[in-house]
Give the backbone structure.
Amino acid sequence: MDKFTLTIDGREITTTADKSLLEAALEGGIYIPHMCFHEDLRPEGACRLCLVEIEGVEGVKASCSTKAEKGMVVTTKSEHLEHLRHLAMELIIARHPAECTGCPKYLNCELQSNKQFIGGSEEVRVRKQIKPISVNDSNPLFTHDFTRCILCGRCVRACYELRGVGVVSFIGKGKDTNIGTAYDRLLMDADCRFCGACAAVCPTGSIRDSERYMEGKDKRKALLPCKNYCPVGIDVPRYVRLIAEGKFDESYAVVRESLPLPCICSYVCLSFCENDCRRGQINDPVGIRELKRFVSERHTDFWKRDLKPHEPTGKRVAVLGSGPSGLTAAYYLARKGHGVTIFEQDAQIGGMLRHTISRKRLPKEALEDDINEIINAGVEIRLNEGGKTIDQLFEEGYNAVLLAIGSTFSGPPALRFKDEDLNITPMGGIEVDTYNMATSREGVFACGDVAINGVTEDFIEYTKSEDYYEDFHESLIEGMVANRGDSYRSATIAIKSGKNAAEGIDQFLDGDGDLTERFASIEEEQSPILGREKGFSRLGRRADAFQRPVPQYAGMDPAGDALTEEEAVEEAKRCLKCNLRLKITPPKFWTEY
Ligand code: FES
């Protein structure tokens, strides 16, 4: 689109014809107060805060609904505009409670911010007409506090324009106008899709995320819990959506982008993603792990279409142990072009995955399917070879050694390598996200349970539990548990630890440490339109099709029946698509201009 210039407050601003005067000014760093305008919504021109004067045009104009034109000369500040803006603000706050400090949106409220920008006025021309409306906390996920509503209509437009749902609307007439649902129904009964667009665009604390749900949570994570609480950060909304669209191969490819052991995890992961799934606040969480199992069981080689071999680096890594963390690290290091050998003291690959989990929970086929892909990536596996010392490995020409030997039966690695001085220390902090262990010896790294248990007691606290095993202990590292059958309890965390180790080792070997892979072709943009669906919120999860692993049974509970294609598609359609909310442009306050 052709660019042109216009003048705003004496400054030359370059813009395009699709922009309003307000957008042109904001992009040029000139703030004009606005309340009913939102970048993602059609302008309404209702609040009258954004008024400007245009040379040669009579009266004043709402800048949000006036298109920018070449050569325009615009003024945003004058005595007259100030007078009108104060009046507009008075009208808005006439129905808004005067106290702000009790509002959960305090200091994050666009009304409060605009009022501060405009400043106070001596004159009071509009009488307060607050209608107390009691806070409605009977809906899941969202709180309605319509006493704080300023009728800007953003929520109404977001629900209708952005999502095609139209559940929230203006109710009543004249001074009795409010926001609500038809017949004052609960959101569940009004066919709400619970996408959160209304809360995302609300400029005040009128529609907000329920404190009941958000309490104690990191908001950034809690708005997309499935992805953010997955230890390896799988793009859950994307793979679930692809299942709903019948694109099963693409869905599996998305899982593989973050997880090299998808078949195994689809049986044994403890579904951290489901614990906080927002759908669970309405009725049942989406059966995310079973959906992963569905695509993992039927996958083809589609995901390998874009698999590009890396240039061999000539560097060699010895991985001791073939449990989930060792397999993961070996896979990624091989993908980065390093020569990788796994030394396994046992006669079979898999470590605790193979030895502590019942085949009724983790079928042999799933285990072998994933392991075969590790071998296909070029990893050499030497079975019955567990007795090497670290010195021997370096003498054999390995450039780095990774201890992925677990700790369950033999204690921390320092005990097993008693001739070596191996203090294991966190390289990147002790949170799972940054969990990455180096040892006191250059070129020797640790991951998985060996890393957890090898960390000094400053970081680990062992506590006896009344649980199934006497030796159950929990670490201070959030989410980390270690006991017999660790691979079952925390396979996905072990995988994350293996990924972190691979990043660290790749960097040690002069690589960039970037393990990002893209297997699913970039599909067309996800449609933000959800549409209205009768009874959507009541759609339940088929109880007998979902048997989540039970930690207490430590891998002995059977896996249950897999979903049929029809069930998988139906289940995937229950997803609230919380990721769409994060695509809504967040508010920017005047202090940011
Ligand atoms: Fe322009 Fe409300 S922002 S009239």
In short: The first strand starts at residue 3 and ends at 8. The chain has four domains: 3-93, 129-215, 231-303+520-581, 312-508.
